[in-house]
Amino acid sequence: MTSVQLMMRYVLTVVGLALAFLLRAEDGHRLWLRMERNAAPAEVRVAGPAKKTVTLAIAREELADFWKGEERLVLSVSDDAPGRDGFRIRRRGQEIQLSSASDIGVLYAAYALLRRQQTGQLLSDGQTVEESPSYDLRILNHWDNPDGTVERGYAGRSIWKWDELPGKLSPLYREYARANASVGINATVLNNVNAKAEMLSGDMLRKVMAIAATLRPYGIRVFLSVNFATPKLLGGLPTADPLDAEVRKWWTGKVEEIYRLIPDFGGFLVKANSEGTPGPQDYGRTHADGANMLADVLAPHGGVVMWRAFVYQPSNSDRACQAYEEFVPLDGCFRDNVIVQVKNGPIDFQPREPFSPLFGAMPHTQIMPEFQITQEYLGQSIHTVFLATMWKDCLDADTYYDGGATVAAVTQHKVSEKSLSAMAGVSNIGDTVNWTGNDMAQANWYAFGRLCWNSHYTARQIAEEFLQQTFTDDERFVAPMCQLLLRSWNVAVDYMMPMGLHHIFAFSHHYGPEPWCNLEGMRPDWLPPYYHQADSAGLGFDRTRSGSDAVSQYHEPLATIYNDVHTCPEEYLLWFHHVPWDFVMSDGLTMWENLCYTYYRGAEEAARFTDLWREMRPYVDAERYAAMLKRFERQSKDAVWWRDACAQYFARFSARPIPADCTKPVHLLQDLMEFHLDIDNYTAADMEKLP
Ligand code: GCV
Question: In the prediction, which pLDDT does 12 show?
C-alpha cells in the first residue's frame, strides 16, 4: 500500500469513527419500529360507534405519538370498509381517513401509514390505498419449551417466562404483540411442536391465559402445540386412541376448560407420528382420524387444527416421498377446520429444496405452507441470509395443478372450494436484547409477516423497507445492503449445498459441514451419505423414474422436466439425479468443475459481504455495526470451512483434482474431519471455537 493510500484509509477511518459516534448507540431492541416520539401528540380522532375498543385506543395512541404529518387523522370502523382484516386509507385535503370493518383492520392501517412515513411513501391528495391480507391466519410457530429452552433457537432463551406467569407479565409480551401487529401477524403457537403434555395442565393454561390477554388487543390469537398422547400422559387414561369414547370425552373437557379461560383460543398444532412423537397410527388409525377427532372437539368453539405433514420413517422409501405417500390418499377426508401444514420442501428446511409436491396434490384439503424463520440450516444466528428470496421462490413456483397454479394460489385456495388459508413461520425470536441474535435476522421475521400479508410483494421491496426503517433511509446504505440481502440466500447455498445437494450438515446441531458423518447404528436417513450418495461414479440422489421416482409426485410437465438430467434445473440437479462427475453442464464445464467453482464463488462472495459491511460503517451506530461485523467475519470464515470441507471430501470420490485456478484450501480435510463442535444453544463465544 502506498503512503497516499495509507493516508486515505486513515482519514476514512477517522471520519467513519466520528460519524459512528454521532449516531446514537442502538441495541436493536426497537426492531423496525424506530420512529421518534412526538413532543406534542398529533391530531387523531376516532369516529363512529366502535370508539371504545382497546385496539382502537392503541391505533389512536400510535398515530398520536408517531405521526409527523400536518394532516388530521380520522379512524373509523365501518361496514362499507374492507373486511377480513383489510383496510382503506384515504387522503382528502388535510384529512387522512383510516377505515376498516374491524378495529384490528384500523390498527393495521395505522401501522401501514407509519410505515409509509418511515419509507417516504406519503399519500398525495385524493389518493386512496386499500389492502387486505393474502392469508387468513398469519402465524408464528414457537419451538419454545416449558423449561425456557428453545429448540433450534439461536437468540437466547424463550421470551415466555413460564416461572413468572401468570403473576408477572414481562414487558416483552406487549412489545412482541406490537411488532407482530405492525406487520400483520395475527396468531402465534406458544410452544414447541415436540410438545410436552404438561402444556395442557390447569396451571399452564392459566399462564397461557395471561399471555393471550396481553396479545389480544393487538389482534393476536394464541394456539398451542399438543402432544397427541396427552390423555394418557396427563389425563391418566390407558389409551390416546382417537376413536375411543373416553379419549374424545377427555379432549372435550380439556377444550372446554381452555375456552372458559381463553374465549378466542385459536386451536391446536399437532406433530403426530413424526420423529418419535405419538399419534393416531400408534392405534392403527390415520392422520385424518386423529386430526378430525380434535377438529370436532374444537369446532363448537371456532377452533382450528393445524396438522403437520412432516412425517417420515426409517424405511426403504425415499424420505422425500413419504409425506406425499401418507397424505395424498387422505385428500378430502379432513374436516373443514383442519389445515394440513406442509414444510416448503419435501425434506426439511434445507438451504435449497424444490417445493413440496403436496402443494397442488390435495385439492380437497386445506393446505398451508410452513417456513422456517429460524436459520437451523442456514448459519443460525451467525450468517446473514435473507429468506424472503427463498420463500418467494416457493410461493411463486408453479405446481401445474389443474393446468397451472402457484404454491401461493393453491394455499390461498384460489383454485379450490376451500376457504381457510394460513401460513406459518418457525420463529427466530428469543429473549436476547435484539430479539433474533443477529440484527439482520430481524429482516426474516419482518419479511415473513409482510409476505403473509401480501404474497405478491417482491423480496426487494421488503428488503428496502426493512433497511430503511431498521437502519437508515440513506441510499448509500440501503442500495448496497439491499443487494447484499437479495444475494445472500444464493451465496449461502453456493458455499453450503450447491446444485441440489442437501442435508450434509454436522450431526444434530446442524452448524457447519460434515458430509462424511456416518455414525454407526444411526438411522441412515439422519446421515449425510444417505443424501449425497457420493461414489466413484458420481454425486446426488437418484429420484428419477428409475430411482426413487420422487419426480412422479409432481404434475406434468414438471415430472418429465425433473426426470431428465438434461432439462432438470441445474439448481436441483443433485437433488433429483445421481450425476456422473464428468457430466457436462450448460456452461460447458463438468459437474465436478462446477461443484468446485460454485463452492469457491460462494466463499468469495461471503468475503465480499464483510468488505461491504466495513464500508457501511458511517451509516450504522457503533453497537450494531460491531456486532454485525463479527458475524460477517465469521460467516466468511465458515464459507471457507464449508468450501474446503466439501471440495476436498468429494474429491476423494471424484478422483479428480480441484481445478488449478482455485486457491489452495486453507484447511486440511483431515483436521476438519477431526473437529467436533459441541453446541447446544449457540452463544457468541462459540464463534471463537470454530475452524
Ligand atoms: C421441532 C427437524 C428439526 C427438529 C424439528 C423438526 C420438526 O428435524 O431438526 O428440531 O423439531 O424438524 O420440524 O418437527
Answer: 47
Q: Which of 256, 275, 336, 402 is catalytic?
A: 275
Q: Is residue 551 part of a domain?
A: no
630 vs 53: CA distance, rounded Å: 46
376 in active site:
yes
- Quick count: other Cβ atoms within 10 Å of Cβ 445? 26
Look at ligand 1, atom 2, and give the residue with the nearest C-alpha.
348
Is 660 contained in some domain? yes
In this structure, are 592 and 641 located in the same domain? yes
Domain assignment of residue 652, given as a range: 493-541+578-689
pLDDT at 2: 52
Give the Cα separation of 27 and 435 in Å (integer). Answer: 10
Atom nearest to 152 CA in ligand 1: 10
Q: Is residue 27, in this structure, part of any structural domain at all?
A: no
Using the mean position of ligand 1's atoms as its centre, give its distance from the Cα of residue 275 in Å: 8
| First CA to last CA distance, the chain | 29
CATH number at residue 597: 3.90.1330.10
Distance of CA 489 to the CA centre of its chain: 13
d(CA 148, CA 159): 8
CA dist., res. 456 & res. 443, Å (int): 17
Please state, in angstroms and rounded to a whole number, the distance separating the CA atoms of residues 222 and 265.
6
Whether residues 250 and 330 fall in one domain: yes
Ligand 1 neighbourhood includes 271 CB (under 6 angstroms): yes
Q: Are the C-beta atoms of residues 353 and 320 closer than 8 Å to each other?
A: no
User: What SS3 class is residue 652?
Assistant: helix
Q: Report pTM.
A: 0.96
Residue 687: its pLDDT value, please?
Answer: 73
Q: With a cut of 50, list the residues of the chain below it in pLDDT.
A: 1, 11-12, 14-17, 19-22
| The amino acid at 161 | K
Residue at 413 is within a domain: yes
E strands present in 549-680: 579-580
- Strand-pair category, 338-343 with 367-372: parallel
Length of the chain in residues, anyone? 691
Whether 160 and 285 share a structural domain: yes
The 10 Å Cβ neighbour count of residue 280 is: 24
Single residue among 99, 131, 163 that ends a domain in this structure: 131
Residue of 62, 289, 376, 494 marked catalytic = 376
Q: Quick one: which atom of ligand 1 is closest to the CA of 370?
A: 13
* pLDDT (0 to 100) of residue 27: 97
Q: Report the distance separating Cα 207 and Cα 160, nearest Å.
A: 10
Among 97, 131, 165, give the residue marking a domain's end.
131
Q: What is the DSSP letter of 590?
A: B
Cα–Cα distance measured from residue 88 to residue 83, given in angstroms and rounded to the nearest whole number: 10
Q: Whose CA is nearest to atom 11 of ligand 1?
A: 194
Q: What are the respective helix, strand and coil percentages of the chain, to the nearest 5?
A: 45, 10, 45
Residues 575 and 541 sit within 8 Å (Cβ to Cβ): yes
Any atom of ligand 1 within 6 Å of the Cβ of 143: yes
Q: Is 149 in the pocket of ligand 1 (CB under 6 A)?
A: no
